[in-house]
Amino acid sequence: METFLITVLMISIPIVVLIVRTTRRPMGKLPPGSLGIPLIGQSLELLRAMKANTADAWVQARVQKYGPVSKLSLFGNPTVLIHGPAANKFVFSGDSSTVANQQTKSVKMILGDRNLLELSGEDHKRVRNALVPFLKPESLKQYVEKMDWEVREHLKTHWIGKQKVQVLPLMKNLTFNIICTLLFGIERGIRRDDLIKCFQHMIRGMWSIPVKLPFTTFSRAIRARWKAEKILKEVIEEKRAEIGQNSNSNPRDLISSLLSSGSREDEAITEEEILHNSMLVMVAGHDTSSVLITFIVRLLANEPAVYSAVLQEQEEIAKSKAPGEVLTWEDLTTMKYTWRVALETMRVFPPLFGGFRTAVRDIEYDGYLIPKGWQIFWVSSMTHMDESIFPEPSKFNPDRYENQLSVPPYCFVGFGGGPRICPGNEFARIETLVTIHYLVTRFSWKMCSDNSFSRNPMPSPSQGLEVQITQNKTIVTA
Asked: Has 411 been labeled as part of a binding site?
């Protein structure tokens, strides 16, 4: 009897397996491409291409070889590369039950797993709702004067009286000081100096292979993260004590605003979320804005017609001001051409080369399977430099944005798109416009270094974009 049962099982099990395999709904096949060497995959290839400023060509070569959807391995995870307006919409407006807003392992370990880039669904909505009130235009209007003061103090210290400057390091210094003053209320001094060093190491490690060896970029970034976290914990405790002593006062900085957010328990955010999102805001605001302003300076040195138009717009505003009078919100609303120049700069030289999402479940996309847990990689330049979307894409043309409706949705993704649009975009706009106003009205410049740049992971001009500067005769030092 026992022999008979074993025989039946041996015959029936393969039949059952065959029936299941043939009746199960197929999810599609994996995209073409190779995952490469375990852990490393194509990470070193991409990083080398970014450093050599050939990353766009590297991606284009993959598209020509494999098509619009392909698989590879980046930073320790199997990945699917997708591109185009439909891909951007899929990434930025995807259902959180399908696509999670999760970054690479290196980004997650450096910034923490409770920052806005990692959260999805109700958690993402809750934390975003806590951040947005402080970063919306109505709130930022009152900080234009402080930002104006920071920019003028920076120029007085680092530009006036100099013959040559390196723009990128100075813009990193400026944007970090603005963030510390306006968003975190951290005074100038040793603590602020230590923080900027920490965040420079953290940024370098965000696009790196997550190997914890003493000599690796990633390991240095992790050590810097722990030091930055310790400093920010001290700041959070100080802000909490201030709120306890002055419970009726309005929050004067982002951390105070986050500590005071949420009248209901389900609206409040945790200290861990405050900490992780503070680090995210510092990294995002410090690097992306400094790169944008640097490349505008680079662009104005190379495009005399654009420079003249920006100068004319800004001089008209300067002439309307009394000596020493600060810029106002109303002044910024008239800088329409200057902001179009900034948008076009972001199109041609996007601070973020691309980004990642994670498949929460098996996804069928464009006829291919994106397995659960795989990364989804999108690249900004794939639509920014598409001639079917932006005619003559290599030509710098700020007039593309004269009518915002002329740019199709999910094609220009300088600030992301849809529900995932950057909550700090208005802060970046104010910061950029105030800085450019004082640069063009007080200085003229010409390039000392060449036009080359690399990505690490943000675009970084050769020699930090060294320029020879001349102070305008009408300069006001107050």
From this structure: no
